[in-house]
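User: Okay, second chain of the day. Same drill as before: sequence in, structure tokens out.
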Amino acid sequence: MISANDLSHSELAALLAFHAEAGVEWLLEDAPVDRLEEFEAIKAKRVDVGAVRKVQQAASPETQSGRRSQATPGKARDALPAAPAITPPAVAIPDEQAISEARFAAESARSLPELRTAMEAFTGCNLKNSARNLVFADSRGASGIMIVGPMPYAEDDRDGQPFAGRHGDMLERMLSGIGLSRSDVLLGNVVPWRPPGNRVPSGREADICRPFIERQIALAEPRHLLLLGNFTARFFFGTNETIHQTRGQWRELAAGGHIVPALATLHPQDLITAPVNKRFAWQDLLAFKARIGG
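Assistant: Same drill. Structure tokens below.
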């Protein structure tokens, strides 16, 4: 096993970046910790504290007075303390209600800035509770091109921008190959809040966020749509096919009354983890270039 002391500063930085991208939010401690034993100790302490409190309550003057008042007719009710108010637990918003609220908030927005404000105020998606930032659509060039990914990753969530860090660098290289840059296109995600640990959003989370991404497309009115990754293609195409089955095929999508041709290809993460995918993405990008050029 290689010790951290044997790594250079650049190697340590690369290792930390790898862990952050994988969703690691804290490292192991120097000494092993028995969490089970720690939990049992906490439970025992709670029991001891509870027993001490019962003894103290039994011996308190107020308790003794209350017991004496019970034996005295007519005074027992006056001697008893008032019952504490019970606060009902917070109730989670049902999925159907959350979807309805998301649809209403999205349709009420008449511009992208208004939509962003509505999404910042929206509380119906549980992903918002664990994410640092809302990652909203970024840039809007005159190319009429919108690129949509699945969700924010760790660096996106940290910066509040879509396709930050390594994913952004790879996307820049992908776009430069067909004569485009990040400033030329509108970037967005199906889900605007990062799922914990970079996990794939659940079906219900995607349903709740659907009105927001569809409204973004309707307001931006792109002429061409580039979908990145397996989750994004399945979300928009409504199939269970893999990205390798749907990539490179033009399909018509309807979002909020706006019809736009869309092409799916691999996500920058797919190219980082498996460089062999670069040739497939390059084929798709050439097809995309030919379509937007025509």
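Strands lie at 145-149, 186-189, 224-228, 250-255, 258-265.

User: Thanks, on to the next one.
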